Each structure stands twice: as C-alpha cells, then as structure tokens.
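Hi D.,

Good news: the full-assembly prediction came through. Inputs first.
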Amino acid sequence: MKRPFISLTSDFGVGTQGIGIMRAVALEICPEASVIDLRHGIPEFDITEGAWTMEAVPQLPVGAHVCVVDPGVGTMRRSIIIKTRRGDFLIGPDNGVLIPATRRLGGIEKAVEITNGKYMRKPVSPVFHGRDVFTPAAAHLSNGVPIDEFGPEMKPEKLAQAPYEEAAVAKGVVTGKIIHVNHFGSVSINAMKEDFAKSGIKYRDSILIDARSNKISSKLLKTFGEVAKGEVVAFADDYGRIEVAINQGRFSDTFGVKLGDRIIIRK
Amino acid sequence: MKRPFISLTSDFGVGTQGIGIMRAVALEICPEASVIDLRHGIPEFDITEGAWTMEAVPQLPVGAHVCVVDPGVGTMRRSIIIKTRRGDFLIGPDNGVLIPATRRLGGIEKAVEITNGKYMRKPVSPVFHGRDVFTPAAAHLSNGVPIDEFGPEMKPEKLAQAPYEEAAVAKGVVTGKIIHVNHFGSVSINAMKEDFAKSGIKYRDSILIDARSNKISSKLLKTFGEVAKGEVVAFADDYGRIEVAINQGRFSDTFGVKLGDRIIIRK
Amino acid sequence: MKRPFISLTSDFGVGTQGIGIMRAVALEICPEASVIDLRHGIPEFDITEGAWTMEAVPQLPVGAHVCVVDPGVGTMRRSIIIKTRRGDFLIGPDNGVLIPATRRLGGIEKAVEITNGKYMRKPVSPVFHGRDVFTPAAAHLSNGVPIDEFGPEMKPEKLAQAPYEEAAVAKGVVTGKIIHVNHFGSVSINAMKEDFAKSGIKYRDSILIDARSNKISSKLLKTFGEVAKGEVVAFADDYGRIEVAINQGRFSDTFGVKLGDRIIIRK
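Then the structure:
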C-alpha cells in the first residue's frame, strides 16, 4: 500500500521549533505518512515567494501540501483546503498563496473553508494555525477523512486572489512580471516555457527584453552555459518558469530590477 | 502498532553533518522510529534557550527526546535519562537543560545516569556524546530497553539545577524573569498563563510591568492584535508562557531588556 | 526486513526547496527507504568541503549516499555510481567529490557511469541532476536495481581525481594539508590518527607544527581540554582526522592559515 505523502512549507526560520512541532503533529495523526519539508525560511509574510515555492508541488508526489505564509493569522482570514484536479490537497490561509500552484496541478476541483473543530488541535492558538489547523487537516485528509467533513464548500471565485497572475501572451510578445529573484541575481517571471511557444517565440530566437527602461538583446536558449560570460540569456528554469540571467553575472543588480517589476519580452 | 517517536534538539548549526549523523544513528538502532528534528541551531552552549526549546516537548507525542546543548562535554558532567510522568524519556547532559520541560510533563518519575557502555556507540568520542551516548540511549529506549539497564538511579534532587526557576506568584504580583527573546523582540517570561490566574490577574485586566526601571502600563489579553500599533500587551505565547510584546514594535529594544532580566507584573 | 537507507548531501542553501524535492523524489521511487539529510548548505561548488563532508558516510548505515556539489553540471562531466567494499553506493558527479569517502569505506569495488535514461526523472534538467539523475539512481539502487543496469563500468583510475590526497607519512614526519576549517577556527588535516601511529608519533608526544612559516610547539593528545587556555593541541576529531586547535582560541586566525595550506607535523 502506498504511504500518504505530506509536505510542509513555511516562513518559519530554519532553526526554529515550530517546524519540528508541525512534523510531529502530522506524524501523530497519520503515523504512516511520509512527511517532508518542502521549504522553510521563506522571507517572513512574503506571499509571492510562498506562492512561487508552492509551484514546486507538481514535482512532489500527489499528497497533502501545507503552506504557512500567513500575515493575516489572528484576523478573520479563512483557513482553506483546495483539492486540485491532479488529486492533491493544498492547505493554508485564504490569502492567495495556494493559487498559482493550482494552475500547475490541473486547476481547482473543489475548495472548502476549514471550520470543523473536530479536526483541529486544541486549544487552537490565535497565531499558530500551522500547528493547530493546517497540519492537522493535512494529516486527517491523509487518513482518508473526506474534504467535505472539514467545512463548507467555497466557490473558487470567492477565494482570495493570487499574488500574481500569469503573463499576458500575444503574438510575438510576452508581458510578465518578476516573481522570484534567486541568490545569483537571476529572475524568474510569471510565464511558462509553453507561453513562449504560444506567442510564437521559439528556442534559439533572438529576443528583446524590456525591464526598467532597459532594452536588452538576448536569446531564448536551454541554459545559461550557452552564452558567453557577461551575456544575457532567457531559458526555462527547473520549475518550468522562464528565467532571465547573465552568465556568471547578476541580472537583477546590473539592470536594477526587483521582485514585482514588469518585464516585456518580444521577438 | 504505534511507531516509537524520537526528537532531536541541539546547538549544532543547521548546515552541519552532526545532525544528520544523529538521525542516522537513531534509525540504525531503531529503524521503525519516527525521528524528527525539534530544533537545531540553538545559540551555542545556551542552556537557557535549550531548556526553553525543550518546553515544546509537551506538544510532541510521548517519546524519547534528546537535547544536545552541552558546554560541559569532555568534563566529568553526567549523561542522564529522565523519565517523566507523562511517559517521555528526556536524554542529555546533566546541566539543567532538561529540567524545565519536566515541569510541563507531569514531573520526574525517575532519573538514571547513563553509564552502561553496552548502549553506547563505540568508540565514544570525548566531545560528541550526542552521537555516541544520547541518541543511542533514545533509540534503545525506543526499542524497549528498560531505563534501569542504562545505569544507576539518581535522586532528582541530585540533578544539576535548571537554568531558571518558575516565577514567584503572590496575590496580584508575578515576579519573573525573561527566558526567551524572539526575533520580533518580544519576550517570554518564566510564568505560565495559570500563574496569572493563581495571582488573581485575569484576562482583560490592566497591569503594570516593571522591567529595567521602566514602569509600563499594559493589559493581559489574548493576542497582540488586540492593542493599537505601538502599545504594549501581555498574552500567553504558543507554548503557554506569558509573552510581553509591542504590537508591530520591538519590546526588547524599546525598553532595553534582555535575556535573564527580572520582570515584575502587578495588577 | 531492514529498510533501505538513503542520505542526501548538497551545496543547496538550507532554506531552499531543491532539498525537499530530492527527498520527495527518493521517497516516491522507494517509499520504504529511510531518507536522511546528511548535510546541506555546503559552501557553493566547494568540492573539498563536499568531499570532507562525505567522509562522515562511514558513520551512517550502509546505503545509497548522494552528494550534489557540482560546479560542472551542464557540461560534459560524467554522473557516476561508486560501489564501495563496505557495500555502499556513492552517487554524484565525477569531479572527485566522492573519492575521499571511498578510502574510508574499504575502497572502490566498482564504478559505473550513469547513462541509462530509464532510471532518470524526465525531463532531465540540464542543471538539476540532483533531482533528475543522482537521487533517482540512489532510490532505484535501494529498490534492488543492479548497478550494471545504470551504465557502462568505469575503471577507477579513469575517475576524476580527489580534491585532496592523503598526507605523506614518513618516520617522525607527517606532511599534510588543511582540508577543513571549523567555525571555532580549528583545522582538520588530511591525516588520520592511524597515520600518526605509522609515523611513530604517539599519544602524548611533543610535536612541532610547521604552518605558514610558523613553528608551533604542541602535543598530540585526546582532546583540547587537556591543554591550558590559549595553548595549541593536536587530536583526532570526531571523524578520525587529526585536528589542530587552540583551547578556547582560533588557530586559523592566530597563525593566518587557511583551507589548502600545507602543514608539517614532526616529532
């Protein structure tokens, strides 16, 4: 029999005990689960970075995936479970952090608000829903409790909006924004490799990148190693997003761009 | 059958291999255990922070819980196992780091010194008892080896003292000290929510906080969100300790207080 | 039945999702494995530090051990599996990072290049072989797939060289170099305790350490606690390597030595 799979993601510091407590809560409720940390140490309250991180869920087995990036904890924001068409459960606050991942998991099959106290750890802390609401929900779902047991259904259009939409794709033009800057100073944008195919920009095409009033000549290639040192290149990153980088350089610093900036790429 | 539960806590850096080696030692001796990291990266040799961290054990399943914060390793300090009334085994150095957690786990049922070489990993390093003494003991206990097999019983009063006692509680006054400062600059003190109830200070009462010759007016509430930005508030933290904070501010910096400082709270 | 054992080591930051994805890939292919992180957060592309870290594998159970320190990913460097005489599989890039560990695991029994796409995760990223090549290989080996299935055998002498050789041992003289500097500023050298025995330098002998034109009088002892504060001492570290330290001081800063420096120790 397959072991249920639970992943945990949060903006807790990697050297803090909240992470260990969530692992323990998961294993106490569902001892047979494989519980893995997808990522912790996300910059605090950074919903964009949290949503970008959760886009890695398609690379994990189908399972219950918890995300605790939750600036609104203690307010009236809802706690939710989203069932994806791939079969996953995404569990976290209703602040948009779970939405971009659903686009990569076949879309939303059903969403419910978590209101049933039966599946919460007691007493429920006003500020630690990761321990008391989200992780217990993931573990009970892994034990086979039906999603409808947790609370009332929510229409997908009532869910809080994602921190970013997908890039606008037109003939020969992709208009996106920066959703991640990695530690090399390379940037990922809210467009998939497939978006470029749709816009008619193909592998090896020359492109013009428009960012912060810079017009940058580049090419769409497979990896940064295909251009000379110091040259700009666009390619699909390991998670399917288009990344713009300078080979052995820092794109973000060189062109003064940052998270959230608009980037237009044309053929 | 329930899987045995082992937690590991240490002051090793989160990017160091000693942690991975302890996990492996635990799993080699007791392959069926759920082994989780409660916390690593505790400030080096900081027994107060270690003891405060171990106060999270009541939130974990009953099991064997190792704590390696051990400035005295290589000296004559003893290695110990404490059995709690809840049924846990706490394993670590006899330097007080395990004591505060026992107060939250029903008290000490029995303590033994670890002297039986049969349950140590050989050769025993003079400086890595986490790997060679504490973790093997946790794993053998998880396999059902009786605590008396590990060495002679110690009377609880012979154990090294805790790094902090519980706050003194009188009518309308709680006299405590700061045992934790979190990364928001909020402080936790050595008093539980229940201590306030005992002293007659109730939820929503106005209080006067005396710290480093500051007299600070505040209230006992449920969470920091209940006061305006910049105001001081006292509430129970996620681990049951009373926390004093400034909503969206840094209490520790504002009032110049630090770990170990005395705090008096009166009605 | 024994659970297969898989360890993961990398130069990925401890707060990045690549680590979690590798854990998930391992568990998806081999759900019964015990998957532990030996160490992450190795300084990026540092093959010496990676090789030194993998020397901890003898302290882990026999299993499949992945190391992703891979500055050459995306180039023509080979992916390899090394079977050790102890029975482990070491999996990673052919850049020498796996070689020092083999010396402590009985030597190399067989090496193969990983070329069989059947055991890779698809599509294979040009820059994330940890996820797509190495971890899948570890998990399939744990499932019992024979090493010869993965690709053609390589003669050990064709493998890329180790980042460091073992120290030269002569009568009364060990000529080595620094392969690790710890966060206390103590240094480990490429000599084992046994090398000192071979050269005739015994426990408690006075020694002369020659490093960066300093001539330092010291002793070979069991631990740094055996000398007075501020004195230099040599002893076997927790991994069997000879470490040179100043009790409560920083050897590396005091004498201006760094990774890769030559150290000569004579009786």
